[in-house]
Specification:
The complex is a heterodimer of chains A (about 400) and B (about 280). With about 400 residues, chain A is mostly helical. Chain A contains 19 helices and 3 strands. Chain A is elongated. Chain B contains 11 helices and 9 strands. Chain B has helices at about 50-60, 100-105, 110, 120-130, 150-160, 180-195, 210, 230, 235-240, 250-255, 260-265, and strands at about 15-20, 25-35, 40-45, 65-70, 85, 165-170, 195-200, 215-220, 220-225. Chain B has a 6-stranded mixed beta sheet, sandwiched between helices. A 3-stranded antiparallel beta sheet of chain B has the order 2-1-4, with helices on one face. In chain B, about 45% of the residues are buried. The chains are: A mainly alpha (about 400), B alpha/beta (about 280).
Chain lengths: ~400, ~280
Amino acid sequence: MDVFQTLSLIVTDYTLRNVALGAGILGIVSGALSTFAVLRKQSLLGDAMSHAALPGVVLAFIITGQKTPLVLMLGALIAGWLGVVLVSVITSQTRVKYDSALGLVLAVFFGFGMMLLTWLQGQNIASQSGLDQYLFGRAAAIVEHDVQTMALLGVAVLALVAVFWKEFKLLSFNPDYAATLGFPVRAFDIALTTLIVAAVVLGLQMVGVVLMSAMLVAPAAAARQWTDRLGVMIVLSSLFGAVAGAGGAIISSTTTRLPTGPTIVLCISAIVLISLLFAPNRGIVWAWLRQQRNRAELQKAMLLEKVYQVSYLEGSPLQTHPLEELRTFMRGSQLERALEALKQDGYMHLDEDGRWGLTPSGVAQAEAILRERPRALAPRPSPDGLRQGEVG
Amino acid sequence: MSSGNQRQAPLPIQIEDLTVAYRAEPVLWDIDVSFHEGTLTAIVGPNGAGKSTLIKTVLGLIEPSAGQVLIYGQPYEQQRRHVAYVPQRGSVDWDFPTNALDVVKMGRYGHLGWIRRPGVKDHQLALEALRKVGMEAFARRQISQLSGGQQQRVFLARALAQDAKIYLMDEPFQGVDATTEKAIVDVLKELKSMGRTVVVVHHDLETVPEYFDHVVLLNVRIIASGPVDEVFTPENLRRTYASRLDGAATDLELASAGVVLQSQEDGDGRVPNAQPDRY
């Protein structure tokens, strides 16, 4: 199927449209929320909550015998919340740290959920089949009603962030200070956590409990690479979430036997990878290039200083030297690169005999370097000493 | 007061019978101390003495086990507007995506209340506060690109933007460069000249007589408090830094706490009980 066919299917095909829209909206919501989760160092909160939701889904089915999304979502919501409360209780009442408490709750709830699921599968109840889709998500099951619910949550989240923009910013950056100004830190915690639980619950059908956590970390992690402004970061994070969500959903729907959740997560992971590598300033590639440039500059300065010193000691700063003599200062190709660069800068020249020497501007530059670095490692003539030497 | 009226104007900060505990362990024990209008007070004491806890309790960040704190005669919740807080620099993540001016504008949020955004006036006040700490050139700088001292000055500017009557600062001199130290001292002097009340958690004993006029010596209990001239004595310092087991600090402990008493013995009489042969 070519790209054009796919695009036309999004418009005409009921299922594909729902899936793409739903996953896109989910990406926007989780992208915006992940910004705050990541900045508040609560990346793992979504992880714990999504895993904690599994036993809620299974128990809701066991208790009610129904498999309607609303009932199962309610179970997930309650279990997710219970997980958060438990984490909060553990950190406040015991000496267990926040990250350990999250890990504990995540493992215990998820383990319990898997146990129930396995037990249920052994019970020979025909209607239970399909519950395991909540592990990795099955976007094809999304109906228009689900998309509407997601859109509603999306609008609510974005409106809340827009209206309470300054409060969200302050409470994320410096909660203690916010508290002294009279802003309710605890209520903000609860509000944000509730929104994240809601996003997790909506994401369960689409991405599944195992991988929903990625949607609550990855978009913000990628967005942070590109900007130093909170507003831009949220917009980018939502955009990345939307692209990965819709893109992943479309790819998996139009390809046979490709699960939705993992495909979406792979899409967002690709965005994260690109961001980590290529974002200006923060990206690894740029940092590496910058480091290479700095190193080259330092090598040039070192070589200039050393040539100046040795020339000076031999009588004149303009003294020339054969290449072999300069090899004591720097190894192999490094030396040739530095010499070539210094020649480009006009600080050194190569005469007909193949000897290297400083140009007058190179002398001035070397003296400037020596002045700026009073604690140069090598012994150096003081500018005064130089002039006296010339007179003598 | 010479008049028959016994009711005096309420003090900026009055702390009564204050006890704070983490679980069963008291961090502050039965604190009674008050801070007067227009004074610069240093809170001094060893690690774990409860210095930060004291100002956090004043700010309502920590719930006391007993006792109360009054700001101009009323609970903190009703007097927020008069109090500005400079937290420890290390208490936030400076990689947060925002710039210096934006952080300083946060000092206006309390005045703005809910939802309303900072306006032109707040912008001006924030720039003015940055100028006072010598940071106006860095207004648009991403905060992670600032040095530690510059970050500290941004926090100070944020408190200045609050335009409060009382300033509570937690270790503002911790690990800062000479420029920043001077900028902070200048701000302290200006605040004092404006009649503001400043309380600073401070760790460098040497500079206490130079920077402050009042001092509170704290080690879970109040060891002594009052004007630096009267209270900042070797005997009181010895008691403050005394290990709680044997009740007497060794000279080594005092030295490691930064006490240099010799320098104060000659001349200004700030340390009346100093005995030169003992140090």
